[in-house]
Amino acid sequence: MPRENKTRYAVLGLLSLKPMTGYEMKGLIAQSVAYFWNESFGQIYPMLNQLAQEKLVEGIEETEGRHNRTRYTLTEKGHQVLHDWLAITPEAVSFRDELVLKLFFGQETTSASLRSHLENALAASRAKLETYQGIEAHLRGRLDAHPQHKFSLIAVRKGIHWEQAMIAWCLESLTALPPVIGQKNTPGSPAKHSGKTQRK
Amino acid sequence: MPRENKTRYAVLGLLSLKPMTGYEMKGLIAQSVAYFWNESFGQIYPMLNQLAQEKLVEGIEETEGRHNRTRYTLTEKGHQVLHDWLAITPEAVSFRDELVLKLFFGQETTSASLRSHLENALAASRAKLETYQGIEAHLRGRLDAHPQHKFSLIAVRKGIHWEQAMIAWCLESLTALPPVIGQKNTPGSPAKHSGKTQRK
DNA sequence: TTTGGCATGTAATCCGTTACATGATTAG
DNA sequence: CTAATCATGTAACGGATTACATGCCAAA
Question: Model-level pTM?
Answer without folding.
Answer: 0.88
